[in-house]
Amino acid sequence: MNTKITPDVKATEYLANERTFLAWIRTSISIMSLGFVVAKFSVWMRELVVRLDPAASVPSAGMSMPIGVTMMAFGGLLALLAAWHYHAVNKAIERGSFRAKLSLVIIVTFAIVLLAIVMIASMLLTAQHL
Fold it and tell me: What is the DSSP letter of 98?
């Protein structure tokens, strides 16, 4: 079956690429926002301890700050990757030679899994010290 590329078909492809880009951007904003919350959690906990018992020893920042900052950096990197991928797909659509690239999906998946492992380990270590 021959499929003729018409302006409507190309417009559909470009719009689908744009929706995909926006989904990646929403995801990166969500990861950065969650990272901010995680990073601020240790600050909030120290302030809470001081307010409840001014004589209590204030715990160290722990892993919340480094994990939160890592999440914010990963969210920013994800936005850059999304922009790069959007541009590459647009060029491929123009050439009529688009092929899905599994490498970006694998890299992002492994980064998320690694971040999840670090967060789980941090939670388990923190729970043991309580």
Answer: -
**Kindly report the CA angle at 20 between 11 and 89, in degrees rounded to 5?**
65
Residue found under tokens 């890299």: 107
Q: How far apart are the first and last CA of the chain?
A: 66
Tokens 């923190």 belong to 126
Place of tokens 């079956």: 1
63 contact partners, CB below 8 Å, separation of at least 6: 118, 122, 125, 126
Neighbour count for residue 35 (Cβ, 10 Å):
21
Q: Where are the domains of the chain?
A: 7-128
Q: For each of the chain's 130 residues, which pLDDT tens digit applies?
A: 444 556 666 888 899 999 999 999 999 999 999 999 988 887 777 777 778 777 777 666 677 888 889 999 999 999 999 999 999 999 988 888 877 778 888 988 898 899 889 888 877 887 665 5
Whether the CB-CB separation of 69 and 96 falls below 8 Å is answered with no
Please state, in angstroms and rounded to a whole number, the distance separating the CA atoms of residues 4 and 66.
52
